Amino acid sequence: MTKKHRNGEIWEFEREMSGGAEGGGVGDVILGIDGGTTSTICVCVPFLPPQSLQFPDPISLLARVEAGCSNHNSVGETAARETLEQVMAEALSKSCSNRSAVRAVCLSLSGVNHPTDQQRILNWLRDIFPSHVKLYVRNDAVAALASGTMGRLRGCVLIAGTGTIAYGFTDDGREARAAGAGPILGDWGSGYGISAQALTAVMRAHDGRGPQTKLTNSILHTLGLSSADELIGWTYADPTWARIAALVPVVVSCAEAGDEVANNIVQHSVKELALSVTAVVQRLRLCGSDGKASFPLVMVGGVLEGNKGWGIAQEVVNCISKDYPGVVPIWPKVEPAIGAALLAWNFLKDSHKE
């Protein structure tokens, strides 16, 4: 992102559009944004009247834009807002639309953990969009759940990417979450948690404080380093969460190759991820009074999607199903940004019913 996007200049494209600020070229639209620690994705989809029963399958996509991190805890509030404004403006520009054509916006963002976070972002959005636009701000886990249930907020979602969180909803609107507090506070099932433990294991082996492991040669080769001592400089030169988490495939490969240290790390992550889900299930009683009722578990994130060989996701499901046999795993057919757009549409439908 460059400085030319700042101070409102990012919206200059609207002046060049025919009709100026009075109308868009494709009719009314909805914006859905999935903002995470690693990337931010915005989609623009056509607006459907509230009386429509459901979005078409497949969903018509007018534009999709991707940028970097928009978690204010990671990059600061100013940089996060610039990224969000950039992707929204570019999505509207690519779809030949503008802000006056927007009916609703749903920002689903990591780092939104408290009503004060929501209100601060809503205040900023109201300065950008016309007063008729409905604005919704939720945690990124909510859109991830909606991506698997096609907009219905019921069940549990487990996100395990750079970070991790479990988030659940009941049909009557109760909600609960577990984990999602970042690596310092113990998101150990996350990509960052797995990789950080692997780096620690390499240093322990190097010092003689821990067992030897295939992780040493594999990680050093991946990073182009010649010795474990160089890991210290590599790690602290840029200790961003996503950079560390990118080592997960190396850890999984070593586990698949039979390395005991790597296997223990991955097994520990499975237990931590399962614990997050069971905590949410217990608090919301998603399993019913007898513990056997079915409930959807939406699985999202690189740790659960990108390691098909070892099968972390299936191991997590197996662990959960021992106590809750009604768990129904779902791997979404659409990405969380589209889930955010579906949420915005459903919120609009609900508001018309009131």
UniProtKB/TrEMBL annotation:
Superkingdom: Eukaryota
InterPro entries to which the protein is assigned, alphabetical: ATPase_BadF, ATPase_NBD, Euk-type_GlcNAc_Kinase
Domain called ATPase BadF/BadG/BcrA/BcrD type: residue spans: 31-344
EC number: 2.7.1.59
One Pfam family, short name: BcrAD_BadFG
Any one GO molecular-function label of the UniProt entry: N-acetylglucosamine kinase activity
Family listed: Belongs to the eukaryotic-type N-acetylglucosamine kinase family.
Protein name, as recorded: N-acetyl-D-glucosamine kinase
Organism, scientific name: Cucurbita moschata (Winter crookneck squash)
